[in-house]
User: Fold this.
Amino acid sequence: MNLSELTTIRVGGPAREYAVAETTEELVSLVKDADAAGTELLIVGGGSNLVVGDVGFDGLVIKVANNQFTIADDLVTVDAGVEWDSVVAQTIEAGLSGIEQLSGIPGLVGGTPIQNVGAYGALTSDTLEYVTAYDRESGAVARWLRDDLEFGNRTSIFKRNRRYVVLDVAYRLQRETMSPPLRYAALANHMNMSVTDSAPVADVRQAVIELRSMRGMVLNPDDNDTWSVGSFFVNPVVPHVPELAVDAQRWPDEHGFKLSAAWLIEHAGFPKGYGKEVGTGRATLSTKHTLALTNRGGATAQDLMVLAGHIRAGVHAKYGVTLYPECDFVNCALA
Ligand SMILES: Cc1cc2nc3c(=O)[nH]c(=O)nc-3n(C[C@H](O)[C@H](O)[C@H](O)COP(=O)(O)OP(=O)(O)OC[C@H]3O[C@@H](n4cnc5c(N)ncnc54)[C@H](O)[C@@H]3O)c2cc1C
Assistant:
């Protein structure tokens, strides 16, 4: 199996061994056996936040595919292998609110606590009640409550420390057909409403999917702008806004300001679609969003690394700000 077939950006060489874990028991036992044998391990969910090098992976790749899903009143408990967007759709159908702004995000449930997935003013940590995880060091399965997960800006204890395998996640939602106040200006504008307005939850989902599609942020096999990992870089947090970036979109942060990485990239001279002139030209910025690096067909991981390194160097040269990748790299690094 090639990792390019398991990742949304469609790069990555062969896996030495490959297994699909259809149940939680299978997942734990595959991980336990690999660790006991000293086999290198790579867990893959939807592959939507993962870039694997052209050499592939010299070990066991496990595709998470456990699939239990229960709704008990307002507590939704879902296995790591369930597609995230189907959870959003089914909870809305069941009359629940709380995750509608996270509609249309690719990947599986297990990925959501790892980088505290967020969009349109909502974060996984807003509704997450607990995570059940297998600890590869102690061999124990334990339940982690939200406050123990050290959630941050696209990060959590699970992102920083790969000893844990997420088995299932529980979310506490609201039994409501109306959303909380929309809060997020772009969403409210798109719905011709104000940020303090509420709207039917199903309408919020539809509006979010429309907005995301316009930006190439909903997977579509026929659209190369979506052959990506979504936002390639995290919005950087800086203590002071650089003089040349005073017009950048920004948000207050406890360590200063969070700047829009998309703005920095665009204003450093890299417009939408940029990249045909860099390296082989098979990897370019999305034609819809400067923060997405995309595979135009036949790109290699090396093509992506060259483009990403070039963009990062250009932003640093102009603004003195270093961009860090949001996605995970396996056997590859920025050129
Ligand atoms: C078009 C597009 C739009 C996107 N939009 C957004 C967005 O709006 N907001 C946002 O936050 N993200 C976004 N993303 C990024 C991505 O969808 C999320 O990070 C998603 O949660 C990743 O889940 P996954 O199942 O695909 O994880 P994968 O990419 O398969 O894995 C990511 C990392 O987590 C590890 N991992 C996966 N599952 C487990 C598990 N069960 N236990 C332990 N480790 C595991 C992997 O080893 C890897 O290191 C977008 C991506 C794309 C392609």
User: Anything to note?
Assistant: Residues 270 and 311 are 7 Å apart (CA to CA). The pocket of flavin-adenine dinucleotide is lined by residues 8, 42-50, 64, 80, 105-108, 110-112, 114-115, 117-119, 165-166, 217, 219, 226, 228-230, 328 (CB under 6 Å). The longest strand covers residues 164-172.
